[in-house]
Amino acid sequence: MSNSLVSSIVFFCLLIVSVRSDVLSDSCREVTKDDPTINFDFCVSTLEGNPKAKSATSVADLVKVATETAISNSNSIGSIITKLLSNKGLEPYVRSCLQDCSELYSDAGPILGQGEQAFEGKDYGTANSAISAALDAATTCEDQFKEKEGVVSPLTKENNSFFQLNAISLAFLTMVQK
Ligand SMILES: *[C@@H]1O[C@H](CO)[C@@H](O)[C@H](O)[C@H]1NC(C)=O
């Protein structure tokens, strides 16, 4: 193979890669414009962690990437809660909050799965309700810890990332419908 052919191939591959990754950063930038509570770096870095983000060519692809990332996020949060619950010395109030949170996050996964299916079927209303319900699960979990004085939520970081991730899915979903 001639050198120039090799370099043109390399050039085109780089071009494709850069065009594709632009979909992610362009969409994340647009989303942060509409919703200032969404962090641009969080949007890009979290979604980049999903291998499917690399082949995304449209915002619609990114809705799926974001939803799937949220599903796997809800599973890891579930494991974190299980680990926390294994602490025998847990205050009963905190234990009961964590048990509720465990249920909330484990329900969120299948709900998001239904949302993704609805999205694939272009039923955007159902997709929106499902993602909103998942986002609410994080809030409901986090709020419980605030109801009792002196109790600190051990899941604040998890709420923040799961909440943001679903807010990003919702914002992408809105962009798709524009
Ligand atoms: C959960 O995280 C989001 C995003 O960071 C934040 O806006 C929200 O206030 C948090 N929820 C609670 C109940 O603290």
UniProtKB/TrEMBL annotation:
Swiss-Prot/TrEMBL keywords: Disulfide bond, Signal
UniProt entry tagged with the keyword Lyase: no
Claim: Signal is one of the keywords in the record: yes
Signal peptide: 1-21
Pfam families linked to this entry: PMEI
CDD domains listed in its UniProt record: PMEI-Pla_a_1_like
Domain Pectinesterase inhibitor per the UniProt entry, residue ranges: 19-172
InterPro entries xref list: Invertase/methylesterase_inhib, Pectinesterase_inhib_dom, Pla_a_1-like
SUPFAM superfamilies: Plant invertase/pectin methylesterase inhibitor
Domain of life: Eukaryota
Alphabetical list of NCBIfam families matching this protein: PME_inhib
Family stated for the protein in its record: Belongs to the PMEI family.
Annotated protein name in UniProt: Pectinesterase inhibitor domain-containing protein
Organism for this UniProt entry: Hibiscus sabdariffa (roselle)
Source organism phylogeny: Eukaryota, Viridiplantae, Streptophyta, Embryophyta, Tracheophyta
